[in-house]
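Appendix B, Record 12. Input sequence as logged:
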Amino acid sequence: MQDIVLIGTLMTILTAIYMLPIASLHNVPKEYMNRLTTILVPEIIILVCLHFLLLQVYHFMEHHKTPGVYIAFAVISIQIALVYNSIFNHWGLSSQEVEESVINNPNTSLQPCFNNILLAGLIHLTSLFIALGTLTVIN
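Logged structural output:
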């Protein structure tokens, strides 16, 4: 039961943290320090939480070998891959390339970083509601 509470707490915290890089990648801040604090730091926190969540699901998998646990493992792995993809696409660019990309895009969102983190956030929200619904029905 403690594992389920810990996983639920991590997923709730992740829901709040996902919003900051999604909003910042949609409307990219012009200053480097603002990009660092509103995009990179939350993405690193998301990755740490997702890795810890993956570790918890892995330990849970040792005791319960059900398809749902394997699906949860796969969903978390996909989210980790998307967040890493977003980080590498954004932070592999120089400041000038980021600013030019934002200026050239009429939505001022940094593509494909915004799409990757948005997809990871949507997968997270979907899995959160499915997990909460499943736990509510089971209990």
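Residues 2-138 form one domain.
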